[in-house]
Amino acid sequence: MPEILRVTAAADVKRIVLQSSQAVGTRPGAVSHAPLHAIEDLVRRSGLGWTILRPGGFASNAFAWAEPIRASRTVTAPFGDVGLPVVDPDDIAEVAAAALRDSAHDGRTYELTGPALSTPRERVADLAAALGEPIRFIEQTPDQAREQMLRYMPPPVVEGTLAILGTPTAREQRISPDVPEILGRSPRPFTAWATRNIDAFR
């Protein structure tokens, strides 16, 4: 058992929540997410009450666009018209808190998504509406995106990310019922995230 789980058990903690990734379930053979399989297995064997959260793409990944929006009101991104149900990190946090408080979630694995498919082009439009100024969207080719991403991601992660962004599976585009079932409300849409965080783009 890794040290963090030993310390947790020794402290008499009864329940843990692991934030994993949707791709563990949707792309089980992907090299990019292989380490998460091992971490999930360790958590399941920990002897503690456990809940595993597998969110899809984060709404907050749009922070990567903050600097070019501030500098030139421009966003470059690949696969401009491919939709994914990006999830608000605040929803992930609320689900995690609910799982920590209630043993009914022990032994469960949840997929967390937003309420609707959203494309990069649409998310840029949502940011422009929140900002009150136009933002130009320039679609990258996959090779252009790969070259950019390789500056800060390992190659397997780049390839796994591009595969999800460009050719999502039906399950990756599915709107999960787990956030509504756990929180008793709809997931927050990207527009809500954009409005709440728009100062980062000014």
Automatic annotation (TrEMBL):
Residues 4-102 form the NAD(P)-binding domain. It comes from the Bacteria. Transmembrane segments: none annotated. Pfam families: NAD_binding_10 (PF13460). InterPro entries: Ergot_Alk_Oxidoreductase, NAD(P)-bd_dom, NAD(P)-bd_dom_sf. PANTHER family: PRESTALK A DIFFERENTIATION PROTEIN A, PTHR43162. This is NAD(P)-binding domain-containing protein. It comes from Phytohabitans houttuyneae.
